[in-house]
Amino acid sequence: MSSVERRPRPLREVVFVDGVRTPFGKAGPKGIYAETRADDLVVRCIRELMRRNPALPPERVDEVAIAATTQIGDQGLTIGRTAALLAGLPKSVPGFAIDRMCAGAMTAVTTTASGIAFGAYDVAIAGGVEHMGHHPMGEGVDPNPRFVSEKIVDGSALVMGSTAENLHDRFPHLTKERADAFALASQQKYAKAVANGRIGPELVPVATRSAEAGWGLATVDEPPRPGTTLEGLATLKTPFRPHGHVTAGNAAGLNDGATGCLLAAEDVAVELGLNVGMRLVGYGFAGVEPEVMGVGPIPSTEKALASTGLSISDIGLFELNEAFAVQVLAFLDHYGIADDDERVNPWGGAIAVGHPLASSGVRLMTQLSRQFAERPDVRYGLTAMCIGIGMGGTVIWENPNWEGAAT
Prior knowledge:
Layout: E1 14-21, E2 25-26, H1 38-52, E3 63-67, H2 79-86, E4 95-98, H3 104-118, E5 123-131, H4 146-149, H5 160-170, H6 176-195, E6 206-210, E7 214-218, H7 230-234, E8 255-265, H8 266-272, E9 278-287, H9 297-308, E10 315-320, H10 325-334, H11 350-353, H12 360-374, E11 380-387, E12 391-398
Parallel strand pairs: 3-4, 3-5, 10-11
Antiparallel strand pairs: 1-8, 1-9, 2-8, 5-8, 6-7, 9-12, 11-12
Helix pairs in contact: 1-2
């Protein structure tokens, strides 16, 4: 037996160094990535992270965690490891795949960040990919019949659009008119952010191919609909229920895309001269009734706030994933935040830009980090999202550029 007493291991501060993403595409045979592989989208993100951060020796990357909801085909085969090899990282760099449906990339971040805090890693790459054109959500799955036969969940729990209709039922004051108005604002804020150069610098150009059109270059997001009007939104079909509330206009579409970010221990980032975009404060995940999965970010935010000793009034910026407008409205109503509060999704959200399931969490974080750089008056920000099968996830971040309390 060793005579040396083991010393307690202190936790380290974890920082978000940098984040990138591919332009998001529309899923389907006419989308920009229809003939582009999912793993190649991830490879572009990893290579771009390394290119933008030349002070980071590739061998200092300790882990690559990549999420995908449908882990088959070109986004299967332990994609964190395979994408790392394809990206040219040293073969000594390990990797793994992760799945928490929509919060895959978010969970890749919290999992590797926890490893950094614990001291197992110094630097990690975390991200996600979803090629919904190649792999529609639910492809190849075989839900256990006991879910319905034993009434563990209602049948609607497995159809995300139906869960959003259930949310409208539960909170009838969250009207279709409010959802449409929120959706329009998302489109308008996104367009303004692009025009002002706020969205764009984080995008990684992707070479695309088409048997008919030949080679191309994806440089901008495909899903946004700049001509959206309230009048037009009001006429859209409600595919999940006759005379329902949820439409293609007030929900995120089916999309293809990938994201990636660099995380590091703060002392290592300083040692290597890496950027410190934001500092991890805490996070929380929570389960809710699968039939109303859209309320998930409410209890996950309560958990994250409780564990950090913060309150909702401390949060100066919110990046909330807009899977459905009603889901964000439920969150805002719970916390007494106005639908048009300028702290919420200031550059628009998934209703405009798209939601390639497992990748979206890092898009939220990348945008928040870029907003922090512009907002030294804001100390804390929050990224949150609802998650299929009845969950929510929330991560709270601190702005290293904060200039202190106003005097």
